[in-house]
Design a protein that fits this description.
Blueprint (H helix, E strand, L loop, with lengths): L8 H6 L2 E3 L10 H10 L16 H8 L5 H11 L6 H17 L2 E8 L1 H5 L5 H19 L2 E9 L4 H13 L10 E5 L11 H9 L3 E2 L2 E2 L5 H9 L5 E4 L7 H9 L3 E4 L1 H6 L11 H7 L3 E3 L4 H4 L3 H12 L3 H13 L5 H17 L5
Parallel strand pairs: 1-2, 2-3, 3-4, 4-5, 6-7, 7-8, 8-9
Helix pairs in contact: 2-3, 5-7, 16-17
The chain binds hypoxanthine and zinc ion.
């Protein structure tokens, strides 16, 4: 749990949260990674090649020194190689939901990367069955609702993405709600969203929700191309929106949700500190955004840590936080009934903390 001593910690902890930008494979802690590697007999890089894997502690400290998105992705893809069985995926996701619940998350929309598993012989069905089992447990035990977002790896081809999309479609996973939407992640620069235009067009025609990472390391044209060409309904990261005033105004007007990940942006050196992020600008311009953890096991913080880091840098008011919380709910892909329940929780929170921030 976020251990900061700020007076606002408890207030923000109790704020009902939605998380929209969480790669479930990025919640694999070094300790679980080493445990599963032992159980599943997976060999990790030997010390001569990379001493980062000498121990969980060595790995934690390597995670503090990422130099870029690609540097992180190298470790991210090695890490997930220990996930083999449905029960591994269930443990991973259940661990995340347990932690998210403690951090005040009531609704989570989580990314998963099927191609990173099918490419090493783990079936799509194995991955999804484990995640679905964890979702059911989290809803039953914590009342935490969730959705799955299938991400395509943009460093792989459009054809590869389409094969994955067709597999999920043929299993009825989009039509029966097992998977709520599609996303696009991995290395951004050099892999613009329009590469995947055809798959996004099919998804739009079928009424499947759509998002994409854009404007994390890539410039603001990655954002405009995701919106204009791939017709995404959300933008993940989107921090470069600040470089295009007209685009920013359009995103605000259209109420497009931007899923921000402050601690991730610092760890991957997209900004030097949280205070550099355009959070005040987004609030002033009425951009709808949520605050998320991205890959919490790699970036040194879960969602509450991200909330507290934002508060420390921007000293937001109760009104600002209410705007963020309400926008996060409105921009969620849950049904209207669930949104109403969540909005009432935020209203009750604002009443009970009135005068605090
Ligand atoms: N950016 C792009 N791809 C990713 C990330 C990220 O922050 N995390 C996991 N895959
Ligand atoms: Zn991400």
């Amino acid at each position: 749990m976020c251990s900061c001593e700020a007076k606002t910690h408890q207030c923000l902890l109790e704020l009902p949260k939605c998380e929209h930008h969480l790669h479930i494979e990025g919640s694999l802690s070094p300790s679980l990674l080493f445990r599963l590697a032992a159980v599943n007999n997976i060999s990790l890089p030997k010390s001569e090649d990379d001493s980062s894997f000498a121990s969980a502690e060595a790995l934690e400290s390597r995670y503090e020194r990422f130099t870029s998105l690609n540097d992180f992705l190298h470790y991210y893809f090695i890490g997930m190689s220990v996930l083999i069985t449905p029960s591994d995926f269930e443990s991973l996701a259940y661990e995340y939901f347990t932690r998210a619940h403690k951090d005040g998350v009531h609704h989570a929309e989580i990314f998963f990367d099927p191609q990173a598993h099918t490419s090493r012989g783990i079936s799509y069905a194995t991955v999804v069955s484990g995640l679905v089992a964890a979702q059911a447990r989290a809803e039953k035990e914590f009342g935490l609702t969730s959705k799955l977002i299938l991400c395509f790896l943009r460093h792989l081809s459009a054809e590869d993405a389409e094969v994955t999309y067709q597999e999920a479609t043929s299993l009825g996973h989009f039509s029966n709600g097992t998977v709520a939407g599609i996303g696009l992640d991995s290395s951004e620069v050099g892999f613009p969203p329009e590469i995947f235009r055809e798959t996004y067009e099919s998804a739009a025609a079928a009424g499947i929700r759509r998002t994409a990472h854009a404007g994390e390391e890539g410039d603001s044209t990655y954002i405009s191309r995701a919106l204009d060409i791939c017709k995404t309904e959300r933008i993940d990261h989107g921090i470069r929106l600040v470089d295009d005033e007209n685009l920013l105004k359009k995103v605000a007007k259209d109420k497009t949700l931007v899923t921000m990940c402050p601690l991730s942006n610092v760890r991957l050196r997209c900004v030097t500190k949280v205070g550099e992020l355009p959070i005040r600008k987004f609030l002033d311009e009425g951009v709808r955004f949520s605050i998320n953890s991205d890959d919490p096991a790699y970036f040194g913080g879960y969602i509450q840590d991200n909330y507290c880091a934002v508060q420390e840098s921007f000293v937001l008011s109760l009104k600002d936080w209410k705007f963020i919380a309400e926008g996060s709910i409105e921009g969620s892909w849950c049904d209207a009934e669930r949104k109403k329940v969540l909005l009432e929780k935020v209203e009750a929170w604002a009443l009970s903390w009135n005068g605090t921030l």
